[in-house]
Amino acid sequence: MNCWKIKKLQAQNFRNLKNSIFDFSPGINCILGQNGNGKTNLLEAVFLITNKKSFRKNTDYAQMINIEGESPEIILQSVFESEEGLLPYSLRMSDALEERFFNNKPEKSKTPSTSVFINPFDSYNFHTSSTFRRQWVDSHISLGDKEYRQVLTRFQKAMKFRNSVLGFGGKNASMQLRAIDEQVSEYSAFITQRRFEFLTALNQFITPTFKAIFSEEHTLQLDLDSLFVHWDQKRIFDFYRHQENADIKAEVTQVGVHRDDFIFSFDGLNAFEFCSLGQQKMAFLSLIFAYIELFRYKFTSYPIVLIDDVSGELDSQRWKNLIQYLETKNFQVLITTANEIFGKELEKIPASKKFYMEHGTLKHHG
Ligand SMILES: Nc1ncnc2c1ncn2[C@@H]1O[C@H](COP(=O)(O)OP(=O)(O)OP(=O)(O)O)[C@@H](O)[C@H]1O
């Protein structure tokens, strides 16, 4: 896989971004400016062209189109660059249509690159919510594994149907459940196996990444907490048959991959219970950068790394550690901050490009 980096971007009618042309560096790009000036919107535009969706939850065209804009469509025009040369890539979105073009030719599925978004609140959500952890793991496996994404979608549909049968009951419920459980058990075995393999691979990178960023020796591990680890389809099917009466009584499927959890441990202790907020953030950042290393290992290419104001909870030494780590890496980073002190640290990075934003416009760059 070739490593395509974003070179230029112009957004029209996208949130509050006002047609400025951003000419990015292939290394570190610092997006600076006060609150509410469009820094996160810029990251969202890059994420949208590379990942085909927003990183914001429950967001679609209606939220993204500029509320004051006169034209009823969003246009994101970009140029990507790799050793192969330049590649113009654009996206047009309206209420009814979404079109993508490579070199002015329509393209349905491919994007030139993938990006990973790091949000300031994700660390807290990851440590406190099992639903968030499950979604995080599922979305990060799915980024590089289309089959996983498809099976997960089929599983979710089957589980929804199973729960509606449980809720509705009736005399045919048992027969219907038997048929659904053929599917549910097949998908569950697949999902569990892929999650287990993903975590085994990821765990090789988390502890070394923590050390590489923060120069401290700690052991970090993310483990799958699931009943079905190493179970085959038949065993899962038998389990659901055995579970049937209890599920009918509860009117819901009580056990399954939809309720699996992931335990993040720090020196063998639960990171949420044991670590300070700063350490939780350090652990979470290490997890993400470990994922980025795993991605490179699997696809011989780095994703574009979008980091939205992560400065909170980290002390100045930890910021410096993070900045130094980014400097040693060969990936493209877009990092934002409204924090003036952190901004000053970012401005010191010699090989980085700085973009100063005001009211959705690029005021100047350096
Ligand atoms: N559809 C839209 N049309 C016009 N403006 C929008 C739209 N959606 C959001 N905005 C505006 O975008 C601004 C927020 O931009 P953004 O989140 O990128 O700010 P930011 O620079 O990252 O701020 P912070 O430093 O506080 O995170 C808000 O002022 C909001 O009103």
TrEMBL record:
Cellular component GO terms, alphabetical: cytoplasm
UniProt-annotated location(s): Cytoplasm
UniProt-annotated binding residues for ATP: 33-40
RecF/RecN/SMC N-terminal domain segment(s): 6-347
An MF annotation (GO) of this entry: single-stranded DNA binding
Keywords from the named record: ATP-binding, Cytoplasm, DNA damage, DNA repair, DNA replication, DNA-binding, Nucleotide-binding, SOS response
Biological process (GO), any one: DNA synthesis involved in DNA repair
Gene3D superfamilies cross-referenced by the UniProt entry: P-loop containing nucleotide triphosphate hydrolases, RecF/RecN/SMC, N-terminal domain
UniProt main location, coarse: cytoplasm
Keyword DNA-binding attributed: yes
Stretches of the chain forming a coiled coil according to its record: none
PANTHER family assigned: DNA REPLICATION AND REPAIR PROTEIN RECF
Family (UniProt): Belongs to the RecF family.
HAMAP family: RecF
Protein's name according to its UniProt entry: DNA replication and repair protein RecF
